[in-house]
Amino acid sequence: MNKKSLSERIFNKIKEKKIIPRPRWEFLLKNYIVWLLGVISLIIGSLSVSVIIFMFKFSDFDIYESLHNNFFEFLISNLPYFWIIFLILFIVVADYNFKQTKKGYKYKLSTIILSSIIISIFLGSSLFAFGSGELIDNIMSRQAPFYSELINRNIKNWDNPEGGKLIGIVAAIQKNDLNLLTHDQKEWVVFYNSNQVLPQKEIKVGEPIRIIGEKQEENIFKAKQILLMPPPGREFINRNRKDMQRLMPNFNDPEEKNRMKEMIKKMEKYPELRETMMERLEMAPLEMKQNLKKELGLYECLIHSDCKTPFEYMVRSDCPFESRCLENKCRVVCPRAFDSKLKESINKKQCGENKDCQCEHYKDKNINNENCRCVEGQCLAIVE
Amino acid sequence: MNKPQTNENFSDYPDEELVAMTLENQSFFLYLMKRYEQKLLRYILRISNISYEEAEDVLQDIFIKVYQNLNGFDSELKFSSWIYRIAHNEVINNFRKNKARAHGHAVSIDENLINKLVSGINVEKEIDQKYLQKNIYKILEKMDIKYREVLVLKFLEEKDYKEISDILKKPMGTIATLINRAKNKFLEELKLNPIK
């Protein structure tokens, strides 16, 4: 009997074990996933580049001599280490994925790394032009703990009166001094002269400014240089932007909400600033503006359920008093303030305009015509 | 599944065509295996220094992997490069699994290949060619597998740079550097273990 060759024995084993080729789609899928992960990594790397560019652009390179002893010190304190590490990490992931593609092995690692860096820089610059760098920086500052302290320290660096740096919004301008509101609600009087302003333009109320100078006393600062351009900043500091989407503070954060409310209170002292800020607020989309005004206490309410009926009205028996939100203010109303015959049709449309309503049946004679209104088809006596 | 019902001589068919035919009819795989059985067995023995029986087991795993992955064969590659790549991976896996092993037996190398190796590596002429032919594995086995493998592929399997690049999945420039370093290592080992 002929002994079977090795190939025949293996062939029989394949048949016996019913081994079959893996389907083609598995290989295609693996290939697509490898490419997809590579591309995603490259995009994330590019987004890091856009933040790096954003942080560098606003790193005060043009005035580094005023802020640092030398260029090296400026570089060390301004390098966006986190984003550089992030970029390196995703370049490594992208390169690993590219190496896993069918033809990836044909290229030297140095060629792949260099190409990834060039693509990331090119793509990152384009993304920066579309504002992604700033957007990511803003989101990170809100969501990531310690981001402002560790990663983009620019605002923290400027909020240092002892170190001769101050940042805030101009609240009022006098001849040789101005009032500055900082993001932590402190008010400063800053002495300056117009030669110290860079670029040489008029300072306006509501504008964010940075000041290099010297703290003289508590809340008194003497400027050596005033910089008008906005820093890479977030939250209140950045609020002079026309793009009102950026104005929306994070009201889920009670601290931020309180800070905003405090700021609005402070603005009572500075009518010009208040007016400027309100003008800017008016540019916001309606819903955002209403929410903002409500959250900031400028609007008492937006809908009826925002209002609660005061206890003293709830215990009164002369009317089923309710609270309604009328013109963004909570008002106590009596919906049965007219004819008792109409009790049955309370929920029906009763009126088209104010003159259709008569409140004389309401026993409180203080109700005048102005407080007897047709609201949403229903006559109401506004009690308080 | 039966053997193809034809008297055709499939030995003339290119590998790539046999791959396509295998995907239609399993039996054609036998032709591919027969074509590569001896080549791969020799390659395994040359680079891994394992026993003949063990090499057969490794070859079985290689052919099963080749069959399972036939749909993943990239037609832009030569089939021989692809199958050698799978063989290389399997040998490396086997090498990692069984680092401590008994020495296997050497495969004989014909004089012609030894001459190519000698001239390729610039071994001094006065070295006894017959002695080198007999003891070449003793030198190769002392070398790191990455150097041993490129020398085997280049001088004993007579693959060109492009094929070695496809088999080892490394850029051609890296292959050139590896071969150069491997040659130097070979000469160093030769000096340390004179076989004059």
Automatic annotation (TrEMBL), chain A:
<protein>
    <submittedName>
        <fullName>Uncharacterized protein</fullName>
    </submittedName>
</protein>
<keyword id="KW-0472">Membrane</keyword>
<feature type="transmembrane region" description="Helical">
    <location>
        <begin position="110"/>
        <end position="131"/>
    </location>
</feature>
<feature type="transmembrane region" description="Helical">
    <location>
        <begin position="79"/>
        <end position="98"/>
    </location>
</feature>
<feature type="transmembrane region" description="Helical">
    <location>
        <begin position="32"/>
        <end position="59"/>
    </location>
</feature>
<keyword id="KW-0812">Transmembrane</keyword>
<keyword id="KW-1133">Transmembrane helix</keyword>
UniProtKB/TrEMBL annotation, chain B:
<keyword id="KW-0805">Transcription regulation</keyword>
<feature type="domain" description="RNA polymerase sigma-70 region 2">
    <location>
        <begin position="32"/>
        <end position="99"/>
    </location>
</feature>
<dbReference type="Pfam" id="PF08281">
    <property type="entry name" value="Sigma70_r4_2"/>
</dbReference>
<comment type="similarity">
    <text>Belongs to the sigma-70 factor family. ECF subfamily.</text>
</comment>
<feature type="domain" description="RNA polymerase sigma factor 70 region 4 type 2">
    <location>
        <begin position="135"/>
        <end position="185"/>
    </location>
</feature>
<dbReference type="GO" id="GO:0003677">
    <property type="term" value="F:DNA binding"/>
</dbReference>
<dbReference type="InterPro" id="IPR039425">
    <property type="entry name" value="RNA_pol_sigma-70-like"/>
</dbReference>
<dbReference type="InterPro" id="IPR014284">
    <property type="entry name" value="RNA_pol_sigma-70_dom"/>
</dbReference>
<protein>
    <recommendedName>
        <fullName>RNA polymerase sigma factor</fullName>
    </recommendedName>
</protein>
<keyword id="KW-0804">Transcription</keyword>
<dbReference type="InterPro" id="IPR013325">
    <property type="entry name" value="RNA_pol_sigma_r2"/>
</dbReference>
<dbReference type="InterPro" id="IPR013324">
    <property type="entry name" value="RNA_pol_sigma_r3/r4-like"/>
</dbReference>
<dbReference type="GO" id="GO:0016987">
    <property type="term" value="F:sigma factor activity"/>
</dbReference>
<dbReference type="GO" id="GO:0006352">
    <property type="term" value="P:DNA-templated transcription initiation"/>
</dbReference>
<dbReference type="InterPro" id="IPR013249">
    <property type="entry name" value="RNA_pol_sigma70_r4_t2"/>
</dbReference>
<dbReference type="Pfam" id="PF04542">
    <property type="entry name" value="Sigma70_r2"/>
</dbReference>
<keyword id="KW-0731">Sigma factor</keyword>
<dbReference type="InterPro" id="IPR007627">
    <property type="entry name" value="RNA_pol_sigma70_r2"/>
</dbReference>
<dbReference type="InterPro" id="IPR036388">
    <property type="entry name" value="WH-like_DNA-bd_sf"/>
</dbReference>
